[in-house]
Amino acid sequence: RVEHPAGGYKKLFETVEELSSPVTAHVTGWIPTWLRGSLLRCGPGLFEVGAEPFYHLFDGQALLHKFDFKEGHVTYHRRFVRTDAYVRAMTEKRIVITEFGTYAYPDPCKNIFSRFFSYFKGVEVTDNALVNVYPIGEDYYACTETNFITRINPDTLETIKQVDLCKYVSVNGATAHPHIENDGTVYNIGNCFGKNFSLAYNIIRIPPLQADKEDPINKAEVVVQFPCSDRFKPSYVHSFGLTSDHIVFVETPVKINLIKFLSSWSLWGANYMDCFESNETMGVWLHVAEKKKGRLLNIKYRTSAFNLFHHINTYEDNGFLIVDLCTWKGFEFVYNYLYLANLRANWDEVKRQAEKAPQPEARRYVLPLNIDKADTGKNLVTLPYTTATATLRSDETVWLEPEVIFSGPRHAFEFPQINYKKYCGKPYTYTYGLGLNHFVPDRLCKLNVKTKETWVWQEPDSYPSEPIFISHPDALEEDDGVVLSIVISPGVGPKPAYLLILNAKDMSEVARAEVEVNIPVTFHGFFKRA
Predict the structure, then answer these.
(1) How far is Cα 315 from Cα 428, in angstroms, rounded to an integer?
(2) Where does Fe cation bind (predicted)?
């Protein structure tokens, strides 16, 4: 067990300045010549506006990062995304838009009457695109989890325009984890108002760029609607599973109280975090739909409570869906533990907090697609390679028990990545993850989901980001390639941060490209091949 008494991880949550132009990184080791393109990543970069602090990990203003690889040379660039939230904060020198865990006070310059009337305007939803960046057609978007996504230029990192998904398709928001198929089709999920005012979840599909060159977002459509376990309280959804034939939606007990969400926040100084609550009795419901027909499978899968943020992968085998997940046990919301005050605490306090939080576990669930009433009371899983079970109960629900694929006390395997292009939705062997030690990211981990063998990269006082796998152009095997991660190493010599390149086979270092500036936490991103 690695300890962090020096508290270097606090540097992950420190405001930095953007760069006016890219800087050259200092390379040690040898960058593979085939590695050409840009690693694009998002995260918070401004943690206060003047004297007003942001309180939660998901509140800081969006900073877009880029590492460029060309002929063995590396440059680093970063710019703040010019969202409404950022531009208005810069203009008014205060927090103007309420963020995930930070309430924006009404304009102090307004008089009591105009303040009173602004109470009835409803909530101004944030467009702070700090979570991920991904392609739609030939365009690139930074995103959070609201209805707003922000188009950016992947070369200059300039902001192009804000896009409101509500104008194109019936969703109240969309996750920061779309699935992107090899032809460019984009799938995502968001909650919506379904029939007779009850809540539901819509899967949306954005087609690839056509010959007419029209923006594919104009052609977005709903392909299937999943029902909600509670008419008025949608579950928080962060990602979903996709195979060539099926869509998997995991409905967790972390609920959004819409009454609170839609009531005037300004009357009681609320933010998004105040609208979450846990359903302590429902456990977890899993839903499956046929992708091509857009048809719901009428099977009620049930299991015990967990939080879910990231699907690892999903695939079909012999009439079963294998669903691999990074779970956190229990119904208490994990985001309650991600306030900046918690994350910036001294190591002993960080550990104390994490002891109370839901415990992480990577799990495999197996969902039978063909149910016969005659099998009531039996385990329906007949696959030889898994200990996961699915038991048909007399009330016609199917009770699932998982196979544990990774578990360590307060050690999470999180931010999972796979060889996505070739293995998403297909049987696979390897996943790469960020190891969280009491919520502090301190290692990179490769996991064989079949044998549960692990390979680890870790150095003292070094704090990596989500690992991104890039396949070798002539790869013959699933793990032929490299893994990229941004690491900060405060107090370990003169260079505060570097881009790390690992051999994906054994997680050994291939090269690093050091920069002279600190790089705060990043959540997600992708590699854009040149």
Answers:
(1) 8
(2) 177, 238, 310, 524
Q: What length does the chain have?
A: 530
pLDDT of residue 303: 99
The reply to whether 238 sits in an annotated binding site is yes
Cβ contacts of 113 within 8 Å, gap of 6 or more = none
Which residues are within 8 A (CB) of 18 and not within 5 positions of it... i.e. 6 or more apart? 45, 63, 78, 79, 80
Which structure tokens are listed for 20? 């006016």
Q: Which helix (H) or strand (E) holds 261?
A: helix 258-262
Q: Which amino acid is at 108?
A: P
Q: What pLDDT digit, counting tens, does each position of 105-164 carry?
A: 988 777 767 666 666 666 799 999 999 999 999 999 999 999 999 999 999 999 999 999
CA-to-CA distance for 522 and 467, rounded, in angstroms? 11
- Closest residue by Cα to residue 430 from 411, 413, 453: 453
Tell me the pairing of strands 186-193 and 179-180. antiparallel
Judge whether residue 331 has pLDDT over 70: yes
The answer to whether residue 343 scores a pLDDT higher than 90 is yes
- The amino acid that residue 283 corresponds to is G
Tokens 């079949």, located at residue? 450
Cα separation of 530 and 519, whole Å?
24
Q: What is the pTM for the complete model shown? A: 0.97
Torsion of CA 164, 166, 169, 170, to 10 degrees: 160
Pick from 490, 432, 431, 502: which is nearest to 463 by CA?
A: 490
Which ranges of 385-458 would DSSP assign to H, the alpha helix?
A: 420-423
Query: Residue 177, annotated ligand binder?
Result: yes
- Binding site annotation covers 524? yes
| Residue range 456-492, pLDDT digits in tens | 999 999 999 999 999 999 999 999 999 999 999 998 7
- Residues 492, 494, 497, 498, CA torsion sign: negative
Phi-psi region of 196 (alpha: psi -120 to 50; beta: other; left: phi over 0): left
Please report which helix (H) or strand (E) contains residue 112, including its range: helix 112-118
Closest CA to 38 of 6, 1, 75: 75
| Residues 501 and 484 sit within 8 Å (Cβ to Cβ) | yes
Q: Other CB atoms closer than 10 Å to residue 267's CB: what's the count?
A: 9
Contacts of 106 (CB under 8 A, 6+ apart): 115, 118, 266
Q: Euclidean distance between the first and final Cα of the chain, in Å?
A: 40
**Spatial separation of the C-alpha atoms in residues 521 and 524, rounded to whole Å:** 10
Which DSSP helix (H) or strand (E) runs through 87? helix 84-92
Dmax (CA) of the chain: 70
Q: Bridge-partner residues for 440, per DSSP?
A: 437
Question: What is the mean pLDDT of the segment spanning 322-337?
Answer: 98
pLDDT in tens, 286-317: 999 999 999 999 999 999 999 999 999 999 99
Q: If 0-12 CB within 10 Å is exposed, 13-18 middle and 19+ buried, where does residue 362 land?
A: buried
451's CB contacts (< 8 A; 6+ apart) are none
| pLDDT, mean of residues 59-79 | 98
